Amino acid sequence: MAAGTRDRILDALEKLLLDVGIAQVTLEAVAAEAEVSKGGLLYHFPNKEALLAAMVRRLGERADAQLADAVSGGTSLSEWYLQVPDASTTEELALYRSTIAALRSVDGQHDEIQRAVIEVMRGWDEGLHSEIEDPVQAEIVRLVGDGIYLAALLGLPLPEPELYSKVVERLLQK
């Protein structure tokens, strides 16, 4: 199965999670949405848990690619983690959709999915701890970044840009 087909299957999964939620997502529905046979889907994703875990890992890969671009442009991991997401870009919108779908898939009942989420989040957490000497400060940066991203995902009011800029400056002690 070509990478394009794999992505089409994962895109179909995300769409179904966003449209109907985890309880109504079946392998048959994902295969139909992706326009592949159930056998083709099962060849690469032997069960629903493996499919959901692959979606979470793809989210991590996409975010890591975005991070690598930012770092190559001179942004630190901490600055990237604390940025207010820009949902007007295609890349960020894809990450939003993937994140919401991933959040809908984590129900505490699927070990592989939980491990995938932990792997993705732990990678960023380790990066922050390696960049910021003080572990308490690194944890504060992680928590603030998580909160800003979640607020943006939920459409909650974000801090005024000038105030948030001061928050970031203080957190990163610039």
Can you walk through the features of this model?
- Helix 1 (3-20) crosses helix 2 (27-34).
- The radius of gyration is 18 Å and the shape is elongated.
- It contains nine helices and no strands.
- It folds into two domains: 1-46, Orthogonal Bundle (Arc Repressor Mutant, subunit A), CATH 1.10.10; 52-172.
- The longest helix has 25 residues, at 48-72.
- By secondary structure, the protein is mainly alpha-helical.
- It is 76% helix and 0% strand.
- It starts with a helix and ends with a helix.
- The protein has helices at residues 3-20, 27-34, 38-44, 48-72, 77-82, 90-105, 111-131, 135-154, 161-172.
- One of its GO terms (molecular function) is DNA-binding transcription factor activity.
- Pfam families: TetR_C_28, TetR_N.
- InterPro entries: Homeodomain-like_sf (IPR009057), HTH-type_TetR-like_transc_reg (IPR050109), HTH_TetR (IPR001647), TetR_CgmR_C (IPR041479).
